[in-house]
Amino acid sequence: MARPLLLVVDRDLDALARTEGELARRFGADFRVRGESDSTVALEQLRLAAERRDPVALVLADPWLPQVSGAELLRTVRTL
Known about the structure:
By secondary structure, this protein is of the alpha/beta class. The protein has helices at about 15-25, 40-50, 70-80, and strands at about 5-10, 30-35, 55-60. It has a single domain (about 5-80), classed as Rossmann fold (3-Layer(aba) Sandwich). Strands 2-1-3 form a three-stranded parallel sheet, with helices on both faces. Strand 1, helix 1 (about 15-25) and strand 2 form a beta-alpha-beta unit. The protein is flat and about 35 Å long.
């Protein structure tokens, strides 16, 4: 079974890199850590994980994402 996914979605590339790096440093041995700056790409990654039945442990989303808001992204995650 694949390690659970920790997904960070943030339009601020510096914040994304810091958060992704810190999560990978602390939890990378037990979780797959991925960062995306584009909410549509993040949703596609989550759909693929759902199709493969890969576990998703956590999604952190910037509330002000340009294509799909963080709140909308999280609402969609619940339906996958």
